[in-house]
């Protein structure tokens, strides 16, 4: 059973790490000030400001920053500055037994997807597909903060994952009622682990996927790769988030892909979850057990892993 990390509350300390691509120092500093204004303390990783091409630092250095946050008793939660690329490079250098023994909430999306799933599969802890440091700013919708804090600040993980009131509701596309741990996240990052030691086992799971800024034929290619790798056959049900700013290709859009590729699978399917790269970001706990009821159009987190 996956472990739910301890709650986070006002006055607690957040560890900030850069685990993939670098982020401008001015942006990091502004977001840290916003966190502090919310009543949270901040500790920065040694390489949080580093810049080495499309990576912040070496794989070993970024991994060491993350492990230092898990080892630090004063740190209650860990926030990556952003995703980008390269997060998979740190996975071989993490101490998963130590992470399991000292669970802390870690939140992110985009390329942080690979870390979230590794924390569940190898560290057996629940993490959160939700906000990163870059999202802590005045223009972030209140819904995003409400979703984030409703999970990390509650001892009871059970809740219904819902879209914001001014957003279309969840759409049950293939009927079914199934339960399993949630895995997944960003499609491109998730596909990138196939054939590696950190490939995610989807057996018995609820598989959640979202994508951003890709032509639909590329999205199709990646979905087909997952299908041929058995990831859809192994899972119990599928949740599709937004394909934010994804471009029509060959006259086909995201809706066509859903109708022509996913619906014929016959797997219980809910679409339209506002999570990931879109404006609204539902908080999806990776590794927690959820019920997907596509007949009712509901996703309910029912227990820890």
Automatic annotation (TrEMBL):
BP GO terms, sorted: proteolysis
Zinc-finger among keywords: no
Domain LD-carboxypeptidase C-terminal per the UniProt entry, residue ranges: 179-292
Active-site residues annotated for this sequence: 110, 210, 277
SUPFAM superfamilies with a match to the protein in the record: Class I glutamine amidotransferase-like, LD-carboxypeptidase A C-terminal domain-like
GO molecular function: carboxypeptidase activity; serine-type peptidase activity
Span of domain LD-carboxypeptidase N-terminal: 14-129
A family per Pfam: Peptidase_S66
Record keywords: Carboxypeptidase, Hydrolase, Protease, Serine protease
Family, per entry: Belongs to the peptidase S66 family.
Listed name of the protein: Muramoyltetrapeptide carboxypeptidase
Annotated organism of origin: Natribacillus halophilus
Native organism taxonomy: Bacteria, Bacillati, Bacillota, Bacilli, Bacillales
